[in-house]
Amino acid sequence: MKKVHVFNAGPCLLAPEVIDASIDALKDFKGTGVSVLSISHRTKEWEETMNECRALWKELFHIPEGYEVVFLGGGASMQFLYVAMNFLEKKAAYLDTGVWAHKALKEAKGIGDAYAIACSADKNYTYIPTGFEIPTDIDYLHVTTNNTIYGTELKEDLDSPVPLIADMSSDILSRPVDVSKYACIYAGAQKNAGPAGVAVAIIRKDALGKVSRYLPTMLDYRTHIDKESMFNTPPVFSIFVMNETLKWVKAQGGVEAIHKRNLRKAATLYAEIDRNPLFVGTAEVEDRSIMNVCFVMAPGHEDLQDEFMAFAKSKGMVGIKGHRSVGGFRASLYNACTQEDVDALVDCMQEFEKMHR
User: How far is CA 165 from CA 64, 76, 112, 187, 281, in A?
Assistant: First the structure.
């Protein structure tokens, strides 16, 4: 089989060990003789997996007491609504740093008074706003820590005088996080924590129950905390693969070790982009994401874009086309992406440069 290097923005690249374990479970889940696709979520074997997955999140992410982990369907886009329903009483502020942050804000506006405290749309979301003051009269501040389309990232946890809520869909598990600074962290799994089909939410329990509106049962975080994410049938296979992914992260040395690898991978690729006269990065240097590296052909070489895309494909590069709204190229360096993959992309870029000297 042809060797390929996968840089898809999502669904993510999964580690070979995770894929192998998933294949085995598709045939026989934990020696039950039943496929994981058909296993009852009320069996002790499945409850053990759910408990293990929850415990691994708490261990790897150093989640303190007073927080709970829930697994939900609908992806992060459904969490946009969950957050507003559960936390927005009077007013909320959002840091508008890209398409997904803007969509989260839109959902909140449908529930109550929500506004952008700062926005980087003036430069096509190529930077993270700074210098804004966080009011103390809002119910929460919402941030999107990594912006997959534009390649920008909040690299440190903000200090906030009000409850802080974060969409970490595309950089969760990629770096250490001080969970105690957040009232809620949520993420769709398909970037770094498993396949599409499940979202994880990490919630400080005493932050709930503050809104006066009626909360539909399914949209109340407390429902899923109380029922341990099994109020209704959970997305069993997606949670199983998430659990295997967390086990893989632990085997690599945990989030701290993964972070060091991610920093090296990103530094390798950004160094080549900055060195190679045919390419230029699009995000402000200080805000460059270590997960999604976005770049375009340098001025004067725009006519080479299609040629490079075809050349990269011939060399086994998969998924480097930029988002349709911005064009260019994007290499997503999620946890399971290896240094070998990044080195191969760099070699490809250097070979293409030699062809056009």
Answer: 16, 13, 16, 11, 29
Residues near 247 by Cβ (< 8 Å), separated by ≥ 6?
A: 56
Which residues sit opposite 92 in a β-bridge?
114, 140
DSSP H or E segment with residue 226: helix 221-226
Residues taking part in catalysis? 100, 167, 191
pLDDT in tens, 49-98: 999 999 999 999 999 999 999 999 999 999 999 999 999 999 999 999 99
Asked if 326 and 357 count as a contact pair (C-beta separation under 8 A), the reply is: no
With beta carbons less than 8 A apart as the criterion, state whether 294 and 126 touch: no
Rounded-to-integer distance, Cα 73 and Cα 76, Å: 9
Which residues share a beta bridge with 166? 143, 185
Whether the Cβ atoms of residue 192 and residue 174 lie closer than 8 Å to each other: yes
Helix (H) or strand (E) holding 93: strand 91-96
* One-character DSSP codes across 16-27: HHHHHHHHHHHH
Element housing 211 (H / E): none
Residue 279, number of CB atoms within 10 A of its CB? 21
Residue-wise pLDDT tens digits, 180-194: 999 999 999 999 999
Query: pLDDT tens digits, residue range 158-185?
Result: 999 999 999 999 999 999 999 999 999 9
What does each C-alpha distance from 218 to 8, 73, 78, 83, 214 come to in angstroms?
32, 11, 11, 13, 12
Q: Hey, what are 6's tokens?
A: 């996968």
Domains of the chain listed by start with CATH number: 16-251 (3.40.640.10), 253-355 (3.90.1150.10)
pTM, to two decimals: 0.97
Q: Half-sphere exposure of 297 toward its Cβ, with a 13 Å CA cutoff?
A: 16
